[in-house]
Design goal:
2 strands; 244 residues
Length: 244
């Protein structure tokens, strides 16, 4: 390798280290948003919910900053092959993190509405457990990214099935509460959308895991993501519109 090529490679590595630090900072903020939004819902803590809502702006700013830095790296260093794959993967992971942050913000918004309603059984505790599982999946997914660990990333993908099963159990529980007493419908619908948003957080975490596997092996996972039985969405043979 010529001296000039070595200089370019070294500069590229420094750029990637800088971008990677931003991704980890963003990931830490998103993990906190998941944890705090679920805690705010359970404790009816409106101050904490407001903190999550305001904190989403910082997550959005970090995504913009990461994308800007990645664009500069592509323009200045003109990476190819695995180097280009690394930069594009980072941009996709940042996009997944931004969406998870949006779902946490939505959860925080609904907390204020639900704080004025009667609690629905032990639903908020179940939602908090579901959010905790997604938070742990994200932590492991980001760890897999740092270590380029395809095996750990594949483990994260398969754990999404557990999140799906938790969501399905909650869905059936909310249906029962609504059929027992129509006065529960409004609160159950808000809780259902919250549970669905957390289930979608899990989907974005598995997308992060997919990107890590691609980064580590050069190939996207060939098998479809494990998903739980979708039959619960069918109401008289039609799809539940709330899930569309």
């Amino acid at each position: 390798m010529s001296e000039q090529s070595q200089h370019i490679a070294s500069a590229f590595d420094r750029d990637l280290e800088s971008i990677q630090a931003l991704v980890m900072k963003m990931g830490g903020l998103v993990e906190a948003a998941i944890r705090d939004s679920a805690q705010a819902l359970k404790a009816r803590d409106l101050e904490l919910a407001e903190k999550v809502r305001k904190g989403d702006q910082k997550i959005d700013e970090l995504e913009d900053l990461i994308n800007t830095h990645c664009a500069q790296v592509i323009a200045m260093r003109q990476p190819i092959a695995s180097d280009l794959r690394t930069v594009l993967t980072v941009m996709k992971i940042a996009g997944n993190l931004e969406r998870i942050g949006d779902y946490a913000k939505n959860l925080a918004k609904r907390t204020e509405v639900l704080s004025h309603m009667q609690p629905i059984g032990d639903a908020t505790s179940a939602i908090k457990r579901m959010a905790r599982e997604v938070e742990h999946m994200l932590n492991d997914g980001l760890d897999a990214y740092i270590r380029r660990d395809a095996k750990l990333a594949d483990d994260v993908r398969h754990r999404d099935l557990e999140v799906d099963q938790m969501y399905n159990a909650l869905f059936r529980e909310f249906l029962t509460f609504m059929m027992e007493d129509p006065r529960n419908i409004t609160a159950c619908m808000h809780l259902h959308f919250i549970a669905k948003n957390i289930e979608r957080m899990g989907d974005h975490v598995t997308s992060v895991a997919d990107q890590v596997i691609y980064l580590a092996t050069g190939t996207m996972p060939g098998d479809p993501r494990p998903k739980d039985n979708q039959s619960i969405y069918k109401v008289d043979g039609a799809l539940d519109e709330a899930d569309e």
